[in-house]
Amino acid sequence: MNIEWMVIRGSGIVAFALLSASSIWGLLVSTKVLGRAVKAKPVTWFHESLGLGALIATVVHMVALTMDDFIEFDWADVLVPGMASWNSMAVSFGVMAFYGLAIVALSFYVKGVIGQKAWRTIHFLAFGTFLAALVHGIMAGTDSGHPAVVGLYFGSALLIVALVAIRVIQQRAATDRPVARRPAAGAESPPGEKQQIPTGVGT
Question: CA separation (Å) from 152 to 13, 95, 156, 164?
């Protein structure tokens, strides 16, 4: 076993582990499962760092693939879906995962330009990115049968599915919750209710 192949295997597993950790951490924060145990700024920094680490590990994985003499990939094989002659479908999922990861990870640095709403929309790509990376790892990974790797794949997938389900339930509950209406201007307050005195301008 040559050094290139060891780097290919190791960087691929590290990239998936960091991607999984970033996805899980983001969902833990958005579902507020952690409550107030962590502050907003460190949470964002950690989430961003995990995503960037996954991207760097993926780039190392791709560079190592182009250096391996057995597979003989060139840059078109690792950058263009469907170009690889070896296990083309699995490699295509990996290429798509790379582009999705790059967009999501780098979106942190243009958040102030594109705005919060666009940034959140881009972040939905993270789910497709994780799924593409999972399929790529199962189909192409030479270690996909190892118990530790199987545990990493399916353990992270189950946890992400559970957290997404919690998030969906929370959003539906928020949508179904009745919104209190403010009384119209000049309308009398119900009996027994004190009229609120506006504060701010002119006080």
Answer: 9, 21, 6, 18
